[in-house]
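Minutes, project check-in

Agenda point 3 was the complex the collaborators sent over. CS summarized: two entities, 587 residues total, and the question is how they sit relative to each other. Sequences were read into the notes so everyone works from the same version.
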Amino acid sequence: MQIAVASGKGGTGKTTISTSLALCAQGGVQFLDCDVEEPNGHIFLKPELTESSKHSVAIPRIVTEQCSYCGKCRNICRFNAITMFGQTIMAFSELCHSCLGCFLVCEENAIVHDSREVGVLEQGQAGEIAFVHGRIRVGEAMAVPLINEVKKKANKADLVIIDAPPGTSCPFVEAVSGADFVLLVTEATPFGLHDLKLAVQVLRTFAKPCGVLVNRSDLGDDRLEKWCQVENIPVLLKIPFDRTIAEGYARGDTLLQSRPDLRQPLENLLQEIVQ
Amino acid sequence: MKEIVVLSGKGGTGKTTLLGSLACLAENKVLADCDVDAADLHLLLAPEHRSENEFRSGVKARVASDKCTGCGTCQELCQFGAIDVVSCAAVDTLACEGCGVCAYFCPEQAIHLDKNHCGTWYISDTDYGPLVHAQLFAGEENSGKLVSFVKGQARQLAEDSGADFILVDGAPGIGCPVIASLSGADAMVAVTEPTLSGWHDLVRVLDLADHFQVQAFVCLNKWDLNPEIAAVVTERCLQRGVDILGRIPFDPAVITAQLKGRPVVLTDSLAATALRAVWPVLHGKVINTFSELSGPKVAFPAPSYQGEMRLG
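CS then shared the predicted structure for the full assembly.
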């Protein structure tokens, strides 16, 4: 079973909840940090990282001696990654989406595979938890290929907890698309509610089951819960603001370290989701 | 005209809270919300739409089922796993990257590329100046393109009105939309919080600003939640030549103001007092930095990430 912990709005407590759920799980559990732009799960789970590999995507390199300047590669590229003026042709690596269209249309074998590093994939063990995360290279724009790579490490037999990136666009979609259930962590503020609505809208386009966890539930008002009620989205757990949690979080303590009494509600939550 | 972008790396550190307050403090400016997949600035500034426009970018593949023979060529060539062929090809539009390879190679010419209507953008009036903002549709791509577009509109507006500043609210992370919002900016203000996660993510966003050679500043939010880490963050920032613009205490007034849909700086609160002090500092630095025309940047070694920050 795959559970993705997502939010829409950033900083609502995705990592706090996802790391604690992983720690609560009985039996084999895997933690996949799919927030590859800003992965934070390792700060709390403190895994021993034993494997590290660079991940690259295919990009074109043009062998000008063989090029006939027919312009087919430039024409097929919808991302403006190949430009040609007369007898000058150039490929712009960072604009390439690796669709391989240019390789396929070139009749002169003038395009060879080159690669662009998008980031690193690191794996290890945090106690009983199998840990995987990706970190995109600073300056790399495309997060999706690396998220996809992290997801490929998912072990089907285990309970898999995915820490998703904030937002509602392609990285979010990529992170949650394989999940059986999406736990949306939000807060009872106007920003929290607004971004929750957007996230739910995305999940509905592909009929993904979801539920809500309201973090810092007493800082805000009841608009969020009322909306959830109207929309028939279950509010599975509410955690009031607690300075102890915030201070522990600052130091890299997990929620279970700051508040051992929350283990039971979180175990129940996990149980409820799995069923 | 100076373009100032507010970023953070980590989400929820207070980008929009800061930008909403700067919007009240700065004079003669244009505002832009470049967090187009979860835009929140409008919730503070109560904009009145002057214009509402469609944003179209890229294409999505569509199969004409009457022409499709189910040969599977498209599925084989698609690098994004967006096509499934049973008796006829079907496109998963959320996965479709819009590269057009399927359409090009379809032997039956059964695949059409539809221009993708992927969001809405607005020019609005607020009590604090004009605002360009947008909403990307659910699950869409092209957030970077929409960000660039919003920035382009804001620049046009600023040029036409002779504005002195463009204040830009950015997205969390360091990927596509963030890079687009940073592109061509004069200064970046990173809002952070005194947590190991906040610091880890701040380092990456400061590295990004270095990568694109944008002058970076830091604003420490909720600093009193952990004064020790706040002190270390301050020291590390100064070591790498990044000035701290101000420190804002944790203050429930921020949320109270948000519930009322107002920038917190307009309230009588500790956070408001601290926020009011940020703009004069930023204003001074942005004006001075660029009138002096700073020389080549000195590269400071980036502190290592993870829980290696020693406290006390």
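Noted in discussion: The first strand of chain B starts at residue 2 and ends at 7.
Follow-up: revisit at the next meeting once the mutant set is ready.
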